[in-house]
């Protein structure tokens, strides 16, 4: 897995600098979406408590990686790549830990420094901080593209949701260099119960060494 692909799921684009409170501007009807559509999107995210899914990540060059994602709102998220040298990303306690198994080292950033931080907020208010720059309803899906209102050059994020029933299926990050990273979700399960230890900041190097020692 390339370094660019490994780092592009959540942590690569300047769009990551979006404020912790994500929102959509009042240009709701742009691109064929209505205010009612945006209210449905808001209601969907605000009613979401837990989500588990498989993800497939495809980078600009066509390289791909996959793994499993867990989201427990508010405040917790885990993305684990299948590859032995893949990333492990854990959000908890307002921080996001990234452990690169290939490099063998962790790094920590604020949760607000990730483009999906809005998923972890207790309430999603769709107004003000982010401008809707595109939207489409087609084939049973809603597509909404947003950018930071004060810094449109930082990049864009597109969310793709199934319309009925409403469900997050994909997001696309477009960075300032117009490089695109696409993440698709499948085998989606909502409303399940997770072990809180999935979201703890234990150093994976220690945990993996302990697991090998006990074998």
From TrEMBL:
Domain of life according to the entry: Bacteria
Keywords from the named record: Lipoprotein, Signal
Endpoints of the signal sequence: 1-25
A matching Pfam family: LolA
Keyword Metal-binding among UniProt keywords: no
InterPro entries associated with the record: LolA/LolB/LppX, OM_lipoprot_carrier_LolA-like
PANTHER family: OUTER-MEMBRANE LIPOPROTEIN CARRIER PROTEIN
Protein name: Outer membrane lipoprotein carrier protein LolA
């Amino acid at each position: 897995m390339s370094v660019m692909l490994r780092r592009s799921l959540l942590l690569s684009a300047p769009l990551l600098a979006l404020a912790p409170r994500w929102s959509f501007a009042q240009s709701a009807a742009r691109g064929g979406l209505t205010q009612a559509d945006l209210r449905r999107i808001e209601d969907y995210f605000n009613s979401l408590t837990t989500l588990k899914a498989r993800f497939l990540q495809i980078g600009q060059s066509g390289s791909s990686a996959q793994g499993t994602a867990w989201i427990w709102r508010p405040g917790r998220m885990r993305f684990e790549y299948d590859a032995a040298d893949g990333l492990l990303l854990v959000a908890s306690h307002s921080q996001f830990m990234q452990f690169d198994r290939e490099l063998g080292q962790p790094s920590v950033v604020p949760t607000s420094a990730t483009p999906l931080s809005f998923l972890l907020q207790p309430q999603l208010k769709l107004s003000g901080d982010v401008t809707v720059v595109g939207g489409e309803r087609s084939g049973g899906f809603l597509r909404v593209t947003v950018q930071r209102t004060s810094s449109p050059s930082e990049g864009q994020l597109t969310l793709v949701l199934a319309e009925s029933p409403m469900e997050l299926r994909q997001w696309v990050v477009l960075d300032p260099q117009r490089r695109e990273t696409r993440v698709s979700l499948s085998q989606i399960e909502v409303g399940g119960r997770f072990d809180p230890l999935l979201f703890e900041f234990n150093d994976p190097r220690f945990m993996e060494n302990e697991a090998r020692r006990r074998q």
